[in-house]
Amino acid sequence: MPKQPSPESFLPLRSNWFHILLSLSEHDQHGYGIMQDVLERTEGKVRLWPTTLYGTIKRLIDSELIEESDERPEPELDDERRRYYRLTSLGRRVLAAESHRLEDLVKVLRTKRLVPKKEATS
Amino acid sequence: MTRAAGFSIWIYRWLSHALPEDFLKAYGREMIATGELTIQNIAARRGVRGLVLLMFHLVFDLVRRLPAEHLSEFTHDLRHGGRVLANSKGMVLVIALSTGLAIAVSLGNYNETKLVFHPVPGVGEPQRLFTVQMPVSYSDFERYAEPDGPFAELAAYMGGVPISVNQQGEIQRLWGHIVTPNYFEVLRSGSAAGRIFQSNEQVLDATDIVIGEGYWQRRFGGSANAIGQNLQINNASATITGVAAKEFLGPSPLTAAAEIWISTKASPRLAPELVSDFLHDSGRRSFQLVGRLKPGITASQAEAQLDAIEKQLEQQRTGTNVAAGPARGIRLLPGGQLFPLRKEDLATNFAPAVAIDGLLLLVACANAGTLLLARTAARSREITIRVALGASRRRIIKQLLTESFMLAIPAALVGLALALFMNHQSQKVVLNTFPSHVHLDLSIGWSAIALGFSISVVSAILFGIVPALKASRVNLVSGLKAGNGRFLPGYRWFSSRNALVVVQVASSICVVILAGIVALGFERASKISDFGFEPRNVYSFSIDPLREGYQPERAWDFLESLPGRLQEVPGITDASVALKPPIENVGFRTVAPRLASQEDAQPAHVRSGNTNRSLSRVTHEYVDSGYFSVLSVRPLSGRVFTPWRAAEEQTAVVVNEALAKEAWGSENPIGRQLEIGGRTCEVIGVVNDFRSSAALAGSPPVINSSMSLGRSRRT
User: Fold this and answer.
1) CA distance, residue B76 to nearest chain A CA (Å)
2) Could you tell me which residues of chain A have a Cβ less than 8 Å from any Cβ in chain B?
3) Which residue in chain B is spatially nearest to A30 when comparing CA positions?
4) Which of B68, B134, B164, B476 gives 20 to 30 Å between its CA and that of A92?
5) Residues of B in contact with A51 (CB under 8 A)
6) How many angstroms away from the CA of B35 is the closest CA of chain A?
7) If you ran DSSP here, which 8-state letter would residue B207 be given?
8) DSSP state at residue B25
């Protein structure tokens, strides 16, 4: 079995990768769901257009950070063209590592008083 | 769904086909569904304006991602191809070697072709420089240079002229040019030190000379003190006024490189070529011309003007109206190229080489194609499975062509390595052929490397396309049942493999035939009997006692006695003296003789339209009585010269068959008279045509005068 790469080897994570991993951190999602989730979470600031979204999903699968999920919703709620994706354990560790990295960065910025507390906590 | 939304979805679906097949297979349906859903949402919420903005974003997103997705698929194909080729090392080696050899030959020819267009070193604006193909007399040059002629600037030079340089008592022979004062100006060539000749120099000292930069470095170590120094050349004292620009060796460095330049205004003591009012002897066509055309005049217009001028000159010389006669065939050649070859002559000169290159490449490609065809037959199960999993024919062809391109890389590398090796070898040959001080850049440059890779890409398409097309035609049922290896089809006459073999064999035969024709051409050119004389055991050397300090009388006495003295040397059976040995271009002279009587102007057989009293340009040689016997040439009629002392021999000439035929047709030429440079001469003998010059193909008309005439004219 090939040795799994360390989570740190993926850092710093590309913005698109981070947003998709974050969207899948709570539950499995299909592509359109990920797109909407990112849009809502970033209040419309980040929008993953379809070709970029699926291009990134392809690379995340190739890097074994996400995988296709077998679980599907009830047929009446499902669209057979959709596929569902979930985080792998490596993906989850990479997301955690990236979160820690960003947290450390924010801490540094706060000590330098470059980020107002209110904005940072909101 | 509105019509606008439906149209937008149709556009989005259509555009998404630009994405690579693997991506579309894996995510295409889902991506299009997401796009459709987004379009429907925006159309419902924001109307047509929102839809237009959305379509802009969707299309921009698609276009932006296209290169990355295609590159991703290509990288995948490369990895797969690498694994496949790693298992077929033998095939890779054979294809790389055979195609590489063809590429190397093409690159070698390309490099030689490039050399043709190499600008003459040290010459400015070389692309605007022209030279007249045949040498002319100085008086003709003066007429060509007149303001009504086609040239804005025109210079003349005589070269290569041998020059004896006395260096502390030791005589060294250098080559030089006798040039008109505007020579350097016309060639846009500057000076490395001192002052070079200028056209506006009203008073040019008769002893002024310019030396080459190479000689300046060798003799004077590049010292500025050389300027103004005296140099003993041709047993006379000359003053160095300047040093020519670095690498400048004159406009014809391969055939007549110069390291010393003497002005046409120089004293005949400095340049014995100028003796006996040489410049005003219209029969002595010894000057090469280089010039720049007037703005707006094309080379063909200039040739027509020069032709008219040439006819005027001929009319003045012969007193016959030749205006309506045939063109004199004056040709302008590119004067700023190392090889003065016209563009329209390129095809004739390089067609055989290009044809051989193309055929060799075809043979190599057919060979590689046959190997790949066999290889793809062995991979039929792999290809069938890929097709069964949904790969299209286009996808299979793309994959196989990628493998062919991967094969092209080692082929290009082998080709470049072989080309570098061949180049190294040919440099040695070139250095032995041309004067060592002519710097010829034969190195393989970036353009050759780019060409090598381009040829290899074309080869990859050529040898990869047939196997790829063949392999992509898969029958799923039989292919999957067949196990590892396709059922071999029954023998068919018109199979792609047979076609490739036919191409291979046919191209090979063509290469052999073409190579044979070229080789026979070379052999014919160098064949002993084709010289028209017996060159076996004939050796020649040149001496010039006049330039080495002998007084004229003593020099001629020495030359007269030389054959007899040489014959006393053991091993030498026969010897003779001539102003120029055969098959030698240096010292090549032409004259325009006239037939001495009106009756002779109406020969039984002359070339079409030649009803005037003047013959075409004729090579003029000075030879002694033993010259023909040394070359084993016997007179066909009449006799050859008797020893020098005979005064009557001064008006005797021996002509070759070509001249006799042109002047008098089938009539007997013995006793006929010719007027050469104002002197009436009588034909005493006719010899067969033999090659007197390497520059002229075939058998040009030749007049041989006795050395005794040379003596009388030069002393």
Assistant:
1) 12
2) 30-32, 35, 47, 49-55, 57-58, 79, 81-83
3) B30
4) B68
5) 16, 19, 31, 61-62, 64-65, 69
6) 6
7) T
8) I
Of B91, B100, B90, nearest to B414 by C-alpha is B100
Contact call for residues B635 and B684 (beta carbons, < 8 A): no
pLDDT, tens digit, 9 for 90 and up, residues B182-222: 999 999 998 888 888 887 766 567 788 999 999 999 889 99
CA distance B528 to B698: 14
Residue of B nearest to A79 (CA): B33
- Phi then psi for B298, rounded to 5 degrees? -85, 165
Higher confidence at residue B624 or residue B527? B624
Q: With a cut of 80, say whether residue B284 has pLDDT above it.
A: no
Cβ contacts of A35 on chain B, cutoff 8 Å: 34, 38
CA angle in degrees (0–180, nearest 5) for B396-B398-B401: 110
CA A62, A65, A70, A71 dihedral sign is negative
| Chain A residues with beta carbon closer than 8 angstroms to that of B62 | 51
Residue B334, phi then psi, degrees to nearest 5 = -60, 120
The pLDDT-based confidence of B31 (bands split at 50, 70, 90) is very high
Residue length of chain A: 122
Does residue A2 or residue B451 have the better pLDDT?
Answer: B451
Pairing state of beta strands B652-656 and B679-687? parallel
* The two structure tokens encoding residue B211: 């030396």
Phi, psi dihedrals of residue B703, rounded to the nearest 5°: -115, 130
Q: Which residues of A touch B61 (CB under 8 A)?
A: 49-52
Which of A55, A57, A81 is the closest to B65 by Cβ? A55
Can you give the length of chain B in residues? 715
Please state the φ and ψ torsions of residue B388, each to the nearest 5 degrees. Answer: -60, -30
Say which of A47, A50, A79 has its CB closest to residue B31. A50
Which candidate in B24, B34, B73 is best for mutational testing of the A interface (most A CBs within 10 A)? Answer: B34
Whether the pTM exceeds 0.90: the reply is no
**Cβ–Cβ below 8 Å for B29 and A81:** yes
- Give residue-wise pLDDT tens across range B318-341: 666 666 666 667 888 988 888 888
The SS3 call for residue B291 is: strand
**Which residues share a beta bridge with B168?**
none
